């Protein structure tokens, strides 16, 4: 990936169909200042009395015509284990940064690093390493997916390393993250589950229900205790039944819960995705990748924690047992599938891939929409929703003028 070009005193993006919080505007202008912040986002030719038109008098303006393209906010991924051949669970700092850059080149400008199940001491050590990258702005937080999950729904997690969610152990991981823990996935039906949910809430960490064998009633209890996220809804939990609705119904019906969806065509049938959007709405759906290190890298043999994974034709499965082992998805692919296969409104997709996860993480004041005062994080897509440009804090990661 090429190094970002020198930043202009002012960048003016014109001509695109721009998705703003108020709706889609054809031919809008988005203005980015030399500090990498958005200073204006209005229809072209709008009489801006607050200074948008002053760009006509600035030297060093970089004007970019995006006619025929979409301009949307940078993507926000709540749940990501790695990419570009690098694992967030086992890689060095350089590896983690490579994984972050890989996803950034696919439009994910804000990313939470997810850890898979491991020994508590190992997870604490990894949290310490990742917390430094959160503090310097490369990551948006840390997500602990395990070890406090159900052996009945372990998916691609090592059964030998699973544990009950003891609040004391949960607290140690929170402390190890030094204020950067964003989320923890756990099975609330296990001993200590509800107390751990309450502890997470007390410390400002999102409690997520996932890899769970909980009943409908147990899931309702967890949400009432403070759980606010459904980890990759439908996957690694009991199926929706007409007599035993299980966690899927409880998580979909509660307006307090945001549901993660992996829109890669493997994890979800299109009808399941449509059901989730119909019931929860875009304001409660967050597209995630659940990516492992093969994302943006290719087929082959990989490790996910201690488990061997084979990736074939872009689908990751455990060598032993054949369970799906995360994904090789990037969010630009999820966006395009949502637009071209699922036929969702573009504004709803933008909510699911940017605004909703940003709000959930508590960073919507900085990212998640194209509004004055926010970081200049943006994605350029062509008319067929193929990625053509990525802007991160005012710097081009992928310049649409050089994209093929």
Automatic annotation (TrEMBL):
Zn(2+) binds at residues 145, 211, 232. Pathway: Amino-sugar metabolism; N-acetylneuraminate degradation; D-fructose 6-phosphate from N-acetylneuraminate: step 4/5. The keyword Hydrolase applies. It comes from Streptomyces paludis. InterPro entries: Amidohydro-rel, GlcNAc_6-P_deAcase, Metal-dep_hydrolase_composite, Metal_Hydrolase. Gene3D superfamilies: Metal-dependent hydrolases (3.20.20.140), Urease, subunit C, domain 1 (2.30.40.10). Its cofactor is a divalent metal cation. It catalyses: N-acetyl-D-glucosamine 6-phosphate + H2O = D-glucosamine 6-phosphate + acetate. It comes from the Bacteria. This is N-acetylglucosamine-6-phosphate deacetylase. Substrate binds at residues 156, 235-236, 243, 267, 324-326. It is an enzyme of class 3 (hydrolase).
